[in-house]
Amino acid sequence: AQSVAQPEDQVNVAEGNPLTVKCTYSVSGNPYLFWYVQYPNRGLQFLLKYITGDNLVKGSYGFEAEFNKSQTSFHLKKPSALVSDSALYFCAVRAQGTNAGKSTFGDGTTLTVKP
Amino acid sequence: GAGVSQTPSNKVTEKGKYVELRCDPISGHTALYWYRQSLGQGPEFLIYFQGTGAADDSGLPNDRFFAVRPEGSVSTLKIQRTERGDSAVYLCASSFRGPPQGTDTQYFGPGTRLTVL
Predict the structure, then answer these.
(1) Which residues share a beta bridge with B56?
(2) Tens digit of pLDDT for each residue in B21-70?
(3) Which of B35, B103, B107 is nearest residue A46 as measured by Cβ atoms?
(4) Contact, B105 vs A49, CB < 8 A?
(5) CA–CA separation, B15 vs B53, rounded Å?
(6) How far is B56 from chain A (nearest CA, A)?
(7) Which residues of chain B from 24 to 43 reach within 8 Å of chain A, CB to CB?
């Protein structure tokens, strides 16, 4: 079975400071890893994904994430937070192979960036 | 271009009634996915289609839930004898190729909020 843990329900940062939203995963074999953002009353928007290769992945809106296989983590980062980054963030994992259609999501982390 | 669309955006029904939720995927996407999101939780996988066939329906909670995609484009999620516990946001997503190539991104629609009274 595959699973995702987002250990922080809430992350608060000041505008201009770096931010980190944590994610750890469990999956059989090599993972595909994704970050999505959800704004109120809107669907999930794709931010970035790790498939293979460079452990540091860059995505939309200045976000990046680092894949760490030994720690089974895929933390989302941004060097300088904006108030407009305030939203709900979801990490997701998919297994490689024929069951790769099933994404398992964490329960989300609410990011609040204060001016 | 147009994204994934879902109708209706909101559906209120009474316990025991039948409901249908519709998903229009991005044009040209062969894979389509249904998820359910309860309050305070992440999306939970229900089923995915590769073309017209359900490739993995392991997430459907019971036989009251059924989904079809007869022409490989639009999909309908059907729920019989609805229960209050079925209340959630039902999300649809599509991707270009789907598994086993499965590196492609799933693009989500805005969801249908189902409320069972």
Answers:
(1) B48
(2) 999 999 999 999 999 999 989 999 999 998 899 888 999 999 999 999 99
(3) B107
(4) yes
(5) 30
(6) 8
(7) 31, 33, 35, 40-43
